[in-house]
Amino acid sequence: MAERLTVGVAARLSRYLQVLTQAKKMGKDRISSQEIAEYTNINATQIRRDLSAFGKFGRRGVGYRTDGLLDEIRKILRTQGQHNIALVGAGRLGAAVTSSPIFAEHGITIAAVFDNDPDKIGQVVGDLTVSSIDDVVDICRDRNIIVGVLAVPAESAQEAAQGLVDAGVKIILNYSEALLDVPPDVNVHTSNPAVDLLYALYFHLT
Amino acid sequence: MAERLTVGVAARLSRYLQVLTQAKKMGKDRISSQEIAEYTNINATQIRRDLSAFGKFGRRGVGYRTDGLLDEIRKILRTQGQHNIALVGAGRLGAAVTSSPIFAEHGITIAAVFDNDPDKIGQVVGDLTVSSIDDVVDICRDRNIIVGVLAVPAESAQEAAQGLVDAGVKIILNYSEALLDVPPDVNVHTSNPAVDLLYALYFHLT
DNA sequence: CAGAATCGTGACGAATTGTCACAAGCGAGG
DNA sequence: CCTCGCTTGTGACAATTCGTCACGATTCTG
Description:
Two copies of one chain form a homodimer. The first copy, chain A, is of the alpha/beta class and 206 residues long. Chain A is built from eight helices and nine strands. The first copy, chain A, has helices spanning 7-25, 33-40, 44-52, 66-77, 92-99, 136-142, 154-166, 193-205; strands spanning 30-31, 64-65, 83-88, 108-115, 124-125, 128-132, 147-150, 171-174, 187-190. Chain A is globular. The relative contact order of chain A is 0.09. The mean pLDDT of chain A is 94. Chain A binds a DNA duplex (30 and 30 nucleotides) through α3.
């Protein structure tokens, strides 16, 4: 239980988390490894093996209880409870992020919003007031925030990332196409829909 | 050259594409496997091996020409030229997508925007007019669109996806948290920032 | 010309994954 | 109560992928 998961296992568990969350919302109280396999394109045997490595969560002939499995996976990933994150960028993408239920659904709360545009500072998005990027260090330290989401244009990305790093943020979700230079102890996840699309396109064309 | 790439290789080539695109924008005309490795966390030897499987693109003692390597990878992935895609959802996320340069940078053009809200239909976003989702079949078939981006709330996602499928779309980028039921010949890529975040969080906590 | 940098590539072990198989447990239906 | 179908948990093993070390070949710099 105290062992560190491999990257592959953790990635798959995350997928299961996503499927289970939705299955629960759809009112399914039970789900089989085969059903999860259909939504994730992960081998059903592999799924059972992944799960059984941490305990016997399922019932033979029946499947897994959606609720119970959700809790178990959250325990395994140690991501139960609430997590506060900071959002940088109050533009269109930032607005989309704050108005999406996708974070709240997984126990993630957007606890602060920053921007460098004087016109946007002080504006209210959702139930938060946009703060100046100059205050990122004080506010993040104060609220113990270690995760930041970058929703800024590529030109401002590096500067914004540096602010987050200075504020003690260790995980950055980068929605700009910029490459970020950060210290080795900071983890950057860059999401580029266009590249994902080209990747998908390759498999369609062949 | 005619061989189908494995999933792993194609995924890595996509990462290289992303790095090279940015490196080019930053004015770098040469790049080494070591530099790519730093941005992608992929082993430098692995990178050289991936590339050399398709030809000798680099120059010893120098590195790779950014431009040339970009072209070669595009050739390998067969994603050169322009690609038209459809966007469903003219809300905040849709607006963010249309205003982002991230697609255009990779030769992807948003050729149509759809929504089911009568108030939004007819509005102009960027240089496109929002069409009714009811017209998705006609318009997509007409423009030979096989890729769709879903930027709608989870409640509308399945319905919108069905519209795209009916229109002949084979690749769907799903930005909602919904699970989609589609025919087996349609490829769905779901992007869930919250789940990605929990995944990253696990590795930080251990 | 010497030296540093970098690619291309072989070899090999380690880790991961896919696959088949099957016993054991569970529920439904008669 | 008994049988049948479904599903999990798990072993065994092959296939694939990946990381690592090594090293010759090539190119640029000074």
